Amino acid sequence: MHLHHQLQSALSPAYTLIKKISRQASKIQGSLRVIAYHDIPLSQRDSLVIQLKWIKAQWNIVTPSQFEFMIRGDEPIIGDNVLITFDDGFISNRFIADEILNPMDIKAIFFVVSDFVSIKNSKQAQQFVANNIIPNSNIDNIPENFINMQWHDLEVLLDYGHIIGSHTKNHSRLDSTISDDSLKDQLFISGDTLSKRLGVNIDHFAYTFGDIDSFSEAALKMAKKRYKFIYSGIRGDNAKNISSYSIKRDSAAFQLPNNQYKLFSNKLLGSFLDGFADFRYKKQRFKIDSWTT
Known about the structure:
The protein is of the alpha/beta class. Helix content is 43%, strand content 15%.
């Protein structure tokens, strides 16, 4: 864990108290955060159960439908609310839904890469990860568990009541250097392929890599033509500046040198959800919000 994360965890209780006092003084009714998970390795599943139980005790975990109403301003945001999401479409997400989310009655959004879903061979899936999801990696450095959910897995998730969202066609970075034709492929073909194969509307989109430099105003404006809800990886409280086209998300894990994901401690994740690190993303939030107008 980084030194600033250790310091953040240590100061978290004091910040949480300050937040409560500030909210009472400003008469803010609540918060609306989004948590972003990725692959959950087998060694981390017990930790995820503990974390989700802890989150459930502290915050109101909303369904995707409830989130839609809140982010559009159709339902008041009262109390501390969080939406659970997963990126990339790793097979571990199916196991997490089967073994953890369903028994806990948690509904989530799974953002998947349409080309990744279509791969049927595990080695090809790992090579796709090395080429696209962790660009310029060697397949020897890709964990064996980094394989994909396939179409039948997505159908099961839908049967469970979860939502499928687009995460581009092949996990391309949608920055200012990408051409309009490539943007259309990544945004329109991805969503349309998912919709056609699954027989549902694909209204949610999360751009890849999540930071402000991996997206652009042109990409957002084109995405608005296809999707109703657009998600970043920029930390922030969506109750403070509601826009369904620049939804902020809090990452819940970091990657180890072997590329496996490791969950943040509950205390550290709680500090992020309380907004402890939001100031560091102020410029990114302002920039992506300016693109929505």
